[in-house]
From TrEMBL:
Belongs to the 'phage' integrase family. PANTHER family: PHAGE INTEGRASE-RELATED (PTHR30349), PROPHAGE INTEGRASE INTD-RELATED (PTHR30349:SF64). It holds the Pfam family Phage_int_SAM_3. Residues 89-199 form the Tyr recombinase domain. Residues 1-68 form the Core-binding (CB) domain. GO terms for biological process: DNA integration; DNA recombination. GO terms for molecular function: DNA binding. This is Site-specific recombinase, phage integrase family. PROSITE patterns: CB, TYR_RECOMBINASE. InterPro entries: CB, DNA_brk_join_enz, Integrase-like_cat_sf, Integrase_catalytic, Integrase_recombinase_N, Integrase_SAM-like_N, Tyrosine_recombinase_XerCD.
Amino acid sequence: YKTQVKESTYLNRRSTIQKHFSYFYKMTVDEIEPINVQNWQLELAKEFSPNYIRIVQGMLSIAFDRAVVLGLAKKNPSRMIGNIKSKKTKVDFWTLDEFQKVISLLYKGDYYEHYLFISYWLLFMTGMRIGEAAALQWSDINFETGLLSITKTLYYKTMDEYKFMEPKTQASIRTIYIDTDTIKELKAWQEVQQKVLKG
């Protein structure tokens, strides 16, 4: 499995598996019955959303599929019991008024607050993901044409260990148009950065 997915995906899933599959550690693979999976679902439901449980159970189902192929189990109790019902979740977005209230609280005379200002501005105005925005370099922005190229994402393993990675899908690689106000704010931030670098 490790060789089939991105390192970030593998590490995230490994930690999820270690956290939630411990429920079954005292049983051998062929001892796990549908009732055990159902009880496990109920335990998870005390702390987590149905959608999250579906994701975790998907990993369990994949593990059992592999166990069946390898002859370690005769059946897949996870698939037999089925998924917990999911709930539709409403995603709340900031209105322009809410966004303006937030950024009005940030003082651009302070380097860190200016960084927060430009981060919020970019995320709100472009719809980029946080990892995409964090991976932006000045070479990705064409101030003349107003085009911003999204070709990578920043993956943090630890505070000291991070790297640029290709997005998970080709559709994530895209070019977006940025308005004149955004260009103006980016240029102002670029000037601040250059002053700090020069010391």
